[in-house]
Amino acid sequence: MVGVRVNGLSSAKRLYQTILYQSSRTIASNILIQEPVSRIKTNLDSEMVGKSGIENLDLSWDSLLTSIYSSSPHKAQLVLEWGLQKLQKENEKNHDIYLELIHLCGKIQNTQTAMRVFTLMENQGLKPTSIILNALISAHLSSGNVITALSIFQLMQNSEDYKQPTSHTYNLFISGFANMGNSKAMVAWYEAKMASGFSADLDTYETIILGCIKLKRFEDADRFYRDMLVAEFKPNTSILHNMLVGLCERKDLVKIRGFMQSILDHKWEINMCMADKLVGFYCELELVKELEWVVEKIRNTNLDFDVVSQFHNGLIRVYAKLDRLDDLEYCIGRMLKEGVSFRSHKDVEMVVCCYFRGDAYDRLEVFLEFIKDSHKLARSTYELLVAGYRRGGLYEKVDFLIKDLDNVC
């Protein structure tokens, strides 16, 4: 690979371009994980480039390195060293490739190699930029190396050119100290950002709100969220999810309902992470009234279909758990009428168990007939039905189901 150039691109550059824009890591990571340490670099040379190289492996460099690191930190280190050696031998002059390699070092908390990449970049005649220095700060903060991160920040402050601290620099320290559990330092860096003449952008609010939620400073999170709205920023789904997490941890039902109403009024997005969190919270506490309120509120909205389905199925699970059969059947009918079906065979099986516990065999038959066009019964559901009917002495149904079971995958 060394020294080979095709269509004007160095092999190192082609390597990074291909890796950065692919998505699957499975094949390549398995190859490297199974290889002995002594063959890692050889394998990277022979297997991941050339005719059967990475362009045919559909892998992601970021995901690949993370996967290898979880199995063998030493092998991950060798992969980074291999990349560093390629850049050095080919006299690479592209800032972006050095930036990516520093970022990868930060992902696996390898600050020594990150500094070696930075030194190589300078030796190649490339001047550091704020983006590069931010990547170095991020790598050191992720490793808990605050002293070095602060030293780099001071270097940026003393610079009079393109290396000055940016808004993102301060966000890195806000996030870094939040991850370290240092709430005072987190807020101090937010205040330092404001004092330095930077205004809070959406990324700042996302960072500080997440930090407050992590550190259970819920009132501070509320304050920053209000400040964000006053500044007329539209919260993204990450901010909305983190706020919802904080409200659920406080078990403040009034504020949760008010928060959800605000989201619906503004027609902001509710994603699956938010739906999962809220449904899980309501189901755990068996809060059927709150779930009913959400289900009614999201009718005739433009919410994602899977999100709507999650709320309906969550309510069904709670009614089944509480053996409220009449409410359960009404809920199922309403859901199917709105074109929403069961998300999982486990939800169907919870309903089946509810019928069995109530000895409501005739109603169970109606239910199964009702859903047959929208839901294909899983093998485990058939087995559950066989066991339930057998306990009830309904052997004709057992025989019928067993015949059907032979045709189920």
From TrEMBL:
Keyword Iron in the entry? The reply is no
UniProt keyword annotation of Repeat present: yes
- Annotated family: Belongs to the PPR family. P subfamily.
InterPro entries annotated for this entry?
PPR5-like, PPR_rpt, TPR-like_helical_dom_sf, TPR_mt
Q: What does the record give as the organism's lineage?
A: Eukaryota, Viridiplantae, Streptophyta, Embryophyta, Tracheophyta
Where are PPR repeat segments found?
Answer: 94-128, 201-235
Could you tell me which PANTHER family the record lists for this protein? EXPRESSED PROTEIN (PTHR47874)
GO MF terms held by the record: mRNA binding; RNA binding
- Cleaved signal peptide residues: none
Kindly state which keywords UniProt assigns to this record, in alphabetical order. Repeat
- Stated name of the protein: Pentatricopeptide repeat-containing protein-mitochondrial domain-containing protein
Pentatricopeptide repeat-containing protein-mitochondrial domain location, by residue?
99-227
